[in-house]
Design brief:
Subcellular location (chain A): Cell inner membrane; Cell membrane
Number of strands of chain A: 0
Family (chain A): Belongs to the binding-protein-dependent transport system permease family.
CATH architecture of the largest domain in chain B: Orthogonal Bundle
Number of domains of chain B: 2
Radius of gyration of chain A: 23 Å
Oligomer: heterodimer
Number of strands of chain B: 0
Structural class of chain A: mainly alpha
Shape of chain A: globular
CATH topology of the largest domain in chain B: MetI-like fold
Membrane topology (chain A): Multi-pass membrane protein
Strand content of chain A: under 5%
Number of domains of chain A: 1
Order of helices and strands of chain A: HHHHHHHHHHHH
GO cellular component, one term (chain A): plasma membrane
Distance between the termini of chain B: 34 Å
Protein name (chain A): ABC transporter permease
Distance between the termini of chain A: 37 Å
Order of helices and strands of chain B: HHHHHHHHHHHHHH
Helix content of chain A: over 70%
Strand content of chain B: under 5%
Chain lengths: 268, 290
């Protein structure tokens, strides 16, 4: 009986695992096909579609734009998140309650609604699409995460360590630099990492902010797929998977992926 | 930097208020200019005609048109089915994870979370290939000598894609809930003669309810408002609210109407979430939201 349930459980877990990796595995495999259309299993093996990607300058410029905007979103989110988290956790100031209310409702507003709201607001302000407006649009998605992660990090910090350091004569900045900052370092890296991923992956908001000349990578792929069914997209997808794997390995080395998601889970 | 240095003191006095405000300023500016202002613009525009005069037409049009009522209904249906799908797949998976060694658990958790790191567009594209006419599913069906049905651009395709995207959001709270269950309860009940099923129904299932309810809430609201996966796997044939917000705003260029549809989406999803959390609170369940 118990052996049977264990066996069934194992089989079920394998099926779920297959389900989880299916779209990615199939994308990677079919990027090697020699046919001019996408098929799985792939027929023959070629790297032609990868060469194709690098011959399309619009994909390369979209990639550069996406990385630039995502790096900007990560940097601004880390700074605004750290400052905002410290302010909410340690100070009382006018607007604190409003800030907290907005912080918790930001997650409840559908991304598509934020997208169309930003479109109409930017139009009203006369702001034309630029990498800068893209960055602004992404900050709405990323800063709430960063603030919440910093708040979670601060909640776990023992204030007596700071008091001890101050009592032993450390100047305020030294206390911040040697005691407070290390305690929230994980939250900061996590916030920046999530900001990067969220911005890099975002299609919903970007669709409303981009123009034909200024498209992030997800928008470029989305538009390309509407008209073409050749395997170029599978090659791009594979490159993006590689990019994600490298990111995970780096994060695992320095922070630990589980901890990152653990911190995220507490926020839900 | 001097302002930052004062944190160790943390105080209620005037300089503390100023420091706090100064520190919060970037976040306040970001939210005021990029969250509150756009949403206010959106609400204001939804009560306007294309030329700017006040009107209730946009809402009357939405609520009066059977087509759009159908869109709203279908949005809620797909979200509910995705939630059920995530529960059916996620609950046994979380139970299985609970009994594994930390090593196996870590690997399976990584497997569960790894899709979150891969672009949503690419994942949806992957399902396009898997379910497409040249894909593995069609190949298997053909191998049995049958003609494969149209697997894409319908509710089922959206459902499969959405369960794939949302599964982690269901399993993580479930795992948290299952981990908190006292590990001696089930052996104690077994010792007193309860069957495995009885233990599951009377101990494990009720005690994991908070995780289940929290997961259901997250999955439902995120699905009802998601755009990317349904747009790619369902297209115009699958009638969902976010897709119509998009087409009204960028194809039809009727901004006031797009704003109204978006605002209805916000009201309906937050309304349902509030009702749900009130229901939970009344039921004595753990408060999981707000």
């Amino acid at each position: 009986m118990t052996r049977l349930t264990a066996l069934l459980g194992g089989a079920f877990a394998v099926l779920v695992g297959l389900f989880l990796i299916a779209p990615v595995a199939v994308t990677v495999a079919s990027s090697l096909t020699t046919t001019a259309y996408v098929t799985f299993p792939p027929q023959g093996i070629t790297l032609r579609w990868y060469a194709e990607v690098f011959q399309k300058p619009e994909f390369l410029s979209s990639f550069a734009l996406s990385v630039g905007v995502a790096l900007g979103a990560a940097a601004v989110s880390a700074v605004a998140g750290l400052a905002g988290g410290l302010a909410i956790h340690r100070y009382r100031f006018p607007g604190r309650a409003a800030l907290e209310a907005v912080l918790s409702s930001a997650f409840a507003v559908p991304t598509i609604v934020l997208g169309i709201g930003l479109l109409q607001w930017f139009a009203q302000m006369g702001l034309a699409s630029s990498p800068f407006t893209l960055l602004l649009a992404h900050l709405v998605l990323t800063v709430p995460y960063a603030v919440r992660l910093v708040l979670a990090g601060l909640a776990g910090l023992d204030r007596s360590a700071e008091k001890a350091a101050a009592g032993l004569g450390a100047p305020p900045f030294a206390v911040f630099w040697h005691v407070t900052l290390p305690a929230v370092r994980g939250a900061l890296i996590g916030g920046a990492f999530f900001a990067f991923i969220t911005s890099f992956d975002d299609l919903t908001v970007a669709l409303f902010v981009v123009t034909t000349d200024l498209q992030t990578l997800p928008v470029r792929i989305f538009n390309y797929m509407q008209y073409d069914y050749d395997p170029t997209v599978t090659a791009i997808g594979t490159l993006m998977v590689l990019f994600a794997v490298v990111a995970v390995v780096v994060i695992e080395r320095f922070v630990g992926v589980a901890r990152l998601f653990g911190a995220d889970r507490d926020q839900q | 930097m001097a302002a930052v240095g004062r944190v160790a003191g943390g105080s209620l006095n005037r300089s503390g208020r100023r420091t706090g405000l100064l520190l919060a300023l970037p976040a306040i500016l970001i939210f005021a200019l990029l969250f509150v202002a756009p949403l206010c613009t959106l609400v204001a525009n939804s009560f306007r005609t294309q030329t700017g005069a006040f009107t209730l037409d946009n809402y009357q049009r939405f609520l009066g048109d059977p087509f759009y009522r159908d869109v709203l209904w279908n949005t809620l249906k797909v979200a509910a089915l995705t939630t059920i799908g995530c529960l059916v797949v996620g609950y046994p998976f979380a139970l299985y994870l609970r009994g594994r060694s930390p090593r196996v658990r870590n690997w399976l958790a990584l497997l569960l979370l790894s899709p979150l790191l891969i672009s949503m567009v690419i994942r949806a594209y992957g399902w396009l290939v898997v379910l497409g006419p040249q894909g593995p599913v069609a190949a298997v069906i053909e191998w049995f000598g049958l003609t494969p049905p149209q697997l894409l651009y319908n509710d089922t395709a959206v459902l499969i894609g959405m369960v794939h995207v949302m599964l982690a959001y269901m399993v993580l709270p479930l795992m948290g809930s299952l981990d908190r269950i006292d590990r001696t309860l089930v052996p104690a009940a077994r010792g007193l003669g309860a069957s495995g099923w009885t233990c599951f129904w009377r101990i494990t299932l009720p005690l994991s309810a908070p995780g289940m309810l929290a997961g259901a809430m997250i999955v439902f609201s995120l699905t009802a408002s998601s755009f990317v996966t349904p747009a790619i796997l369902g297209g115009p044939k699958v009638k969902l609210m976010p897709y119509f917000v998009y087409t009204q705003a960028t194809v039809t260029l009727d901004w006031p109407y797009a704003a109204a549809i978006g605002f209805v989406l916000v009201v309906v999803t937050t309304g349902l979430l509030l009702a749900y959390s009130r229901l939970l609170r009344r039921g004595g369940g753990e408060v999981v939201f707000g």
